[in-house]
Specification:
alpha/beta; Rossmann fold; Oxidized Rhodanese, domain 1; 2 domains; eight-stranded mixed sheet; five-stranded parallel sheet; 32% helix; 20% strand; globular
C-alpha cells in the first residue's frame, strides 16, 4: 500500500493528540506477541491489526468449537474444528494486508516462552490461564518486555499493564485464588469478554505509542453485574520473590520428587512415570510429607491451582526448591 493510502487508512487515529505520524510509525514497527486467540484475543487481534501494528505473532494450540462462537467473534460456524490461530490469521489478513501474521499452533509453556518473548516489542496475555499469566509475567520481567494481561469470568474481569517499567503481575496478584473456575464451569458473557479485550487492546496501543499516563502500572476492573468499573495504579508495589515457578512436564528430571495431584479418573496417565499420586488434602492438612533431601518438589495438576496450593503448604515446613506443572489434559486422559 502506498504511503498516501496508508495515511488515509489511519487518518482517524493519526489526528489524535499524542499520536501523529510518529505514533503510527511506532505501531508499524512493533512486533506484538498475542497468547490466546479466543474471547479476549478476538477484539485484541482485530483492533491491533486494524490500527496498523506491523507484526503479530499468534500463539494458541486449541481448535474452534461451537461453544466458542458466542464470544470469539473472529470465527464463524465454518471454522469449527479448525486451529484457532489459522482461522484468526485468515480473518486478520483480510482486514489488513500490511500486517505480518505469524502463527504458533501450540500452547504457550515454559519451554517455548523465552524465545517468543525475546522477539516481541510487547506481549498480550489473552489466554485466561493462571499458569500462562505467571509464566509470561516472570519471563517478561526478566526480559524487560511490557505485558498487558487480562482475565474474564462470568460478567467481571480486569485488564492491567505489567513488567517493562512497572512491577510484575506477581506484585499485584501474589497468590492464586482459592478455587478454580473456568468459562466452561462458571460461564461467561460474550459482551463482557469483548469489552475487556477492547480495553486490553487500547492499553497495548497506548503502550506502543508512548501515551501518558502509561498503561503500565495500571489495572482496570469491570463488574457488569453491578455496572461498575474502577482502576488503580501500582507503580510502587513491592516485587515479591518468584518462589513458585511453573515448568513444563518435559523439564521434570529423574531426581525430582513428583506429585501428581490429579486422581486416576481425571488423568489416567500421570505427568511423569515416576510421579506419586498424593491427594491435595495430604498437604493442606499438614500431614508432614516432605521430599527427600536435596531433591526438587514438583507438583502437577490440570490448571496449576492445586499445585500452587500444595506447594504453598509444603513451603511452610520445607525450604527446598519447588516447581509447578499445569499439565492440562495429558495424553490418555
Amino acid at each position: 500500500m502506498a504511503g498516501g493510502d496508508k495515511m488515509n487508512r489511519y487518518t482517524r487515529q493519526i489526528c489524535l493528540p499524542g499520536m501523529g505520524e510518529a505514533g503510527q510509525a511506532a505501531l508499524d514497527a512493533a512486533h506484538v506477541l498475542v497468547v490466546g486467540a479466543g474471547g479476549l484475543g478476538a477484539p485484541v487481534l482485530q483492533y491491533l491489526a486494524g490500527a496498523g501494528v506491523g507484526h503479530l505473532t499468534l500463539v494458541d494450540g486449541d481448535t474452534v468449537s461451537l461453544t466458542n462462537l458466542h464470544r470469539q467473534t473472529l470465527f464463524r460456524e465454518a471454522d469449527i474444528d479448525r486451529p484457532k490461530v489459522e482461522a484468526a490469521a485468515d480473518t486478520l489478513r483480510r482486514l489488513n494486508t500490511n500486517c505480518t501474521i505469524d502463527t504458533v499452533l501450540a500452547p504457550l509453556d515454559p519451554v517455548n516462552v523465552s524465545d517468543l518473548v525475546a522477539q516481541a516489542t510487547l506481549v498480550l496475555d489473552c489466554a485466561d490461564s493462571f499458569a500462562v499469566s505467571y509464566i509470561l509475567s516472570d519471563t517478561c520481567r526478566a526480559a524487560g518486555v511490557p505485558l498487558i494481561s487480562a482475565s474474564v469470568l462470568g460478567v467481571s474481569g480486569y485488564a492491567g499493564g505489567f513488567c517493562g517499567t512497572a512491577p510484575s503481575l506477581r506484585a499485584v496478584f501474589p497468590d492464586l485464588p482459592d478455587r478454580a473456575a473456568t468459562c466452561a464451569t462458571a460461564g461467561v458473557m460474550g459482551p463482557v469478554v469483548g469489552m475487556i479485550g477492547a480495553a486490553q487492546a487500547q492499553m497495548a496501543l497506548a503502550c506502543l505509542t508512548g501515551q501518558t499516563p502509561s498503561p503500565l502500572g495500571q489495572v482496570l476492573t469491570f463488574d457488569m453485574q453491578g455496572y461498575r468499573s474502577c482502576g488503580f495504579r501500582f507503580d510502587a508495589a513491592p516485587e515479591p520473590a518468584a518462589d513458585l515457578r511453573f515448568i513444563a512436564a518435559s523439564q521434570i528430571t529423574a531426581r525430582d520428587f513428583v506429585v501428581e495431584l490429579r486422581p486416576p479418573e481425571e488423568a489416567p496417565n500421570p505427568v511423569s512415570p515416576h510421579a506419586q499420586r498424593i491427594p491435595l488434602d495430604d498437604f493442606t492438612s499438614g500431614a508432614g510429607l516432605v521430599p527427600p533431601d536435596g531433591g526438587r518438589a514438583v507438583f502437577a495438576c490440570r490448571s496449576g491451582l492445586r499445585a500452587w496450593q500444595a506447594a504453598t503448604h509444603l513451603r511452610q515446613r520445607w525450604p527446598g526448591e519447588i516447581a509447578l506443572v499445569a499439565a492440562g489434559n495429558t495424553p490418555g486422559t
